TrEMBL record:
InterPro entries: 6-hairpin_glycosidase_sf, 6hp_glycosidase-like_sf, Glyco_hydro_88, PolySaccharide_Degr_Enz. GO terms for molecular function: hydrolase activity. SUPFAM superfamilies: Six-hairpin glycosidases. This is Glycoside hydrolase family 88 protein.
Amino acid sequence: MMHYRKKNYCIAVLITGFLLFSCSRLTAQQTSSPAVVISKDLKWSERMALSIRKRDPKAWQIDNNEKTKWDYKLGLVMTSFEKLYEATHNPLYANYIKDYAETVINSSGGILNYKLEDYNIDNINAGKMLFDLYARTKDDRYLTALKTLRKQLETHPRTNSGGFWHKKIYPNQMWLDGLYMGTPFYARYTAAFEGGKDFDDIAKQFEQIQLHTLDPKTGLLFHAWDESKQMDWASKQTGTSPNFWSRSIGWYMMALVDVLDYMPKDHSKRKELIQYLNEIAKAVANYQDETGLWYQVTDAGKKEGNYLEASGSEMFVYAFAKGANKGYLPARYKKLANKGFDGIIKKLITVDADGEIHITQVCASAGLGGNPYRDGSYEYYIREKIKTDNSHGLGPFILAALELKK
């Protein structure tokens, strides 16, 4: 059967140091390129990476983007490709990263559509791909970009208790998501360039989340905390948002296991972070479904409208597997991770005749406040768009598969 999936064909033009793209949409019938068949004999991590490249020859095309941009979601996928390159040494994956980086970092190290004064913690995340890219290429543009992102953290607004605001437009708020966006980059930078001087400050971010978002009844973490307690979604007693969102907890757990990669073994805060990981892992394990997966609203189970969500499940699998592999978590979490990954394959992955794979049931996006207003209710989380092959579900799938050597 002929498939008519549309492809992007682009002409690159160099203007003021940035590559800009003029794109047109052509169907498969209008091209003569040979069909790409992805072997079922490959590991799941490579099958997903090759499927991504097949659909989106340029990384910026992921999520049906019409033009390139500096973006935390693309940074997540690039992080997974970097880890895949480390595991396989296949230049195909390194080149995919480099090709994207060259479209968002100009020859002087300027970052496309980035404004430091926005103080958006999400904007730090894509910077993770620049460390190894700089090491491989010795291109100073990447070092300049790294320094720019580090400079943001120096002046980024904080709560009175020292936690990074999620964004300037969300004053006094810490979101679980922000721990993944900021702290692994911060940890790697301070380890690589600053002699590890800021690990106490990095640990403080986790301490604040534990102090202010932990629910003593379930052991889970609420999605966000408003120090001012002024937001409509915030509890007037605690400042927390009202529900548990699996992906937000997944972001937090991934942040913990990734920061520990860079924190020295003798650092006074290391045991504290490992304890946090054990506590949240125990709580999350209590809500693993019989399928091995987790629900969109973590503690709500089969309540009407709730569904088994891909990205949160993948993040939990990754954190469980990496935590067990590194010795942070007991070995039983490796079994839970394998159960989770098997559930992802059985319930959420579809495979085309040519071997291309797709991840289904990915929550497209969720947040709090803003316009239109997001109230953090149960109904809000279950009504957000559900997509196939959304970037939130692509990167964590590769990371989880790599940790489990699937």
